[in-house]
């Protein structure tokens, strides 16, 4: 039997409430952009995930086979395979249950996520085109920025190929929840993993809406000015890291962690576990924006239920109003790129 090693328990203590060690339901996960700043720690954590049986690492970087060789020496049961360059992409994708995409350029100080659109849009379009042909049923988890536009791009490509399933395409916003938990855990002096908070909207600046009124336990701050400061810190936390890295990129380690947790939840849904819930940016009719992030319940076919965002207070309703035009603009830009 596959005994759970302590290191795996530590890695997934945030994400897995009913952690299964059952060997029969295991999955192939493909990482596109696996040799990058996010790709490497993400792949490391996925190598530790007992639900992953095959890890296919794909990147353009010449040293991608080396990253795969390196990870393959870890003494966990999953198989690691490396693929380099577009000729090897179909083999990397074939039969994947989940494709996680952190391929693309990151921000430098002074840039917005939307400034990455021109480079990253074609990367996500071309990767999705290959998924449409070689693994049309795969769950597609998009980390590449700007997430608000990349999910519409992937969706349009799948539509063009006649294989679109809105329940299988996710923008990964988990880092916003991870940060919210951490900051609120610090304020309240509690373990961050005990903090439950939805972050809704999208994944850039004003479109990131932490719903502090629904947070459990409630953040121990009363003054509106402090609530406003915490909200802004969560919205600008990516920029905080970009500035601190001073030109060397954006969040990679906390994103690797967040991406692995998100993937683990998708896999738990695939294996038939019930009540697995994470926030994600998905096709939506919850608001007038065609795509929107809020809590999603996962199942065997991706989204089992969109749980909506519940009650917002007046301050959060105002945040939503401010977010909406930006979100719609980002979505239209993505759709227009493919059409
Ligand atoms: P990075 O430059 O360190 O790594 C990107 C990797 O993608 C590189 O190894 C590169 O070779 C590879 N790549 C480029 N084009 C490719 C292609 N066509 N196919 C396969 N691989 C390709 O960047 P990073 O720090 O890992 O960030 C990656 C992306 O993730 C950026 O767009 C960044 O903005 C985004 N990001 C998103 C979140 C989020 O919360 N969703 C968080 C952090 C970063
Ligand atoms: C983040 O939130 O850290 C990422 O979206 C990367 C960035 O550009 O801020």
From TrEMBL:
Domain Lactate/malate dehydrogenase C-terminal: 173-338
UniProt KW keywords: NAD, Oxidoreductase, Tricarboxylic acid cycle
Coiled-coil intervals: none
Enzyme class, spelled out: oxidoreductase
GO BP annotations, alphabetical order: malate metabolic process; tricarboxylic acid cycle
Active site per UniProt: 203 (proton acceptor)
Catalytic activity: (S)-malate + NAD(+) = oxaloacetate + NADH + H(+)
Lineage: superkingdom: Eukaryota
Domain Lactate/malate dehydrogenase N-terminal residue range list: 28-171
InterPro entries: L-lactate/malate_DH, Lactate/malate_DH_C, Lactate/malate_DH_N, Lactate_DH/Glyco_Ohase_4_C, Malate_DH_AS, Malate_DH_type1, NAD(P)-bd_dom_sf
Binding sites annotated in the UniProt record for NAD(+): 33-39, 59, 120, 143-145, 255
Gene3D superfamilies per UniProt: Lactate dehydrogenase/glycoside hydrolase, family 4, C-terminal, NAD(P)-binding Rossmann-like Domain
CDD domains linked to this entry: MDH_glyoxysomal_mitochondrial
Catalytic activity, EC: 1.1.1.37
Cellular component per GO, a single term: mitochondrion
Signal sequence extent: none
Gene Ontology molecular function terms on file: L-malate dehydrogenase (NAD+) activity
Pfam entry (one): Ldh_1_N
Positions contributing to substrate binding: 107, 113, 145, 179
Annotated family: Belongs to the LDH/MDH superfamily. MDH type 1 family.
Subunit structure of this chain's protein: Homodimer.
PANTHER family per UniProt: MALATE AND LACTATE DEHYDROGENASE (PTHR11540), MALATE DEHYDROGENASE, MITOCHONDRIAL (PTHR11540:SF16)
Protein known as: Malate dehydrogenase
């Amino acid at each position: 039997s596959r005994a759970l090693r302590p290191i795996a328990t530590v890695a997934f203590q945030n994400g897995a409430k009913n952690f299964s060690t059952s060997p029969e339901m295991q999955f192939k996960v493909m990482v596109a952009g696996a040799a990058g700043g996010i790709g490497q720690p993400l792949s490391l954590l996925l190598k530790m995930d007992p639900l992953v049986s095959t890890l296919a690492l794909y990147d353009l970087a010449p040293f991608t086979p080396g990253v795969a060789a390196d990870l393959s020496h870890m003494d966990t049961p999953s198989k690691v395979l490396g693929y380099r360059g577009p000729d090897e992409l179909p083999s990397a994708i074939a039969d994947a249950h989940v494709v996680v995409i952190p391929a693309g350029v990151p921000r430098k100080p002074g840039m917005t996520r939307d400034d990455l659109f021109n480079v990253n849009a074609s990367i996500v379009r071309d990767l999705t085109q290959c998924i449409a042909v070689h693994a049309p049923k795969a769950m597609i988890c998009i980390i590449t920025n700007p997430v608000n536009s990349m999910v519409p791009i992937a969706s349009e490509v799948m539509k063009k190929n006649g294989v679109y399933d809105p329940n299988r395409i996710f923008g990964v916003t988990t880092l916003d929840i991870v940060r919210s938990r951490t900051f609120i855990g610090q304020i309240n002096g509690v373990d961050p993993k005990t903090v439950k908070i939805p972050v809704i909207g999208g994944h850039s600046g004003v479109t990131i809406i932490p719903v502090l009124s629904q947070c459990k336990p409630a953040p121990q701050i009363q003054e509106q000015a402090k609530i406003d400061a915490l909200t802004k810190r969560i919205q600008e936390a990516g920029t905080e890291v970009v500035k601190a890295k001073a030109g060397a990129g954006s969040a990679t380690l906390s994103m690797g962690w967040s991406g692995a947790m998100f993937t683990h939840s998708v896999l738990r849904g695939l294996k038939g576990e019930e009540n697995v819930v994470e926030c994600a940016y998905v096709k939506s009719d919850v608001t007038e924006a065609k795509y929107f992030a809020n809590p999603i319940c996962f199942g065997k076919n991706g989204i089992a239920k969109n749980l909506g965002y519940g009650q917002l207070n007046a301050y959060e309703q105002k945040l939503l109003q401010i977010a909406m035009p930006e979100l719609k603009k980002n979505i239209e830009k993505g759709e227009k790129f493919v059409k």
